[in-house]
Specification:
Length: 165
């Protein structure tokens, strides 16, 4: 596994549509492993392939309940509402208020391209929405209500940091 460079806002790769993965390859498996390692290293709770420069529909998430890998994810159901601070590893040092559904159901495929469904509420629902938006070239900053505000850079070993996706 390897740490990949996280692209930041202003990089055109973050504004593009990602392509569906219709054939699994060792390259894509390695990409998924690298994305998880890169996300953990950056203390994030989610990462989408375009954030490491790859325009494929692949997302990794871990909100503290173990790793989730989503190939070709799509939101098929959502309900409720939550408003809270959201951050992004591609927009470092800031956060802003975003309203998202409080419940989301996602249809996706695993690394063998077997289909499955997964549901989430609260932070996990927010992460699903945020990461799947990345696959359409959409950053949370376009959804922020009010101003972005600075967040303290996380100290080494600090457990209280802002979650970033
Ligand atoms: Ni993000």
């Amino acid at each position: 596994m390897a740490i990949r460079t996280i692209r930041t806002e202003g990089d055109a790769v973050l504004t593009k549509q990602c392509r569906t993965i219709d054939k699994m390859t060792d390259r894509i498996r390695t990409l998924a492993e690298d994305m998880l390692e890169t996300m953990y290293e950056a203390d994030g709770v989610g990462l989408a392939a375009p954030q490491v420069g790859v325009l494929k529909r692949l997302v990794v998430i871990d909100v503290g309940e173990g790793p989730i890998i989503l190939v070709n994810p799509e939101i098929v159901e959502s309900s409720g509402e939550q408003t809270g601070d959201e951050g992004c590893l591609s927009v470092p040092g800031v956060a802003g208020q975003v309203t998202r559904p409080n419940y989301v159901k996602v249809k996706a495929q695993d690394l063998d391209l077997n289909p499955f469904e997964i549901e989430g509420t609260e932070l996990l629902a927010r992460a699903f929405c945020h990461e799947i938006d990345h696959l359409s070239g959409k950053l949370y900053t376009s959804l922020v209500e009010g101003e972005l505000h600075p967040v303290a850079q996380e100290e080494e070993g600090d457990e209280e940091g802002e979650e970033a996706e």
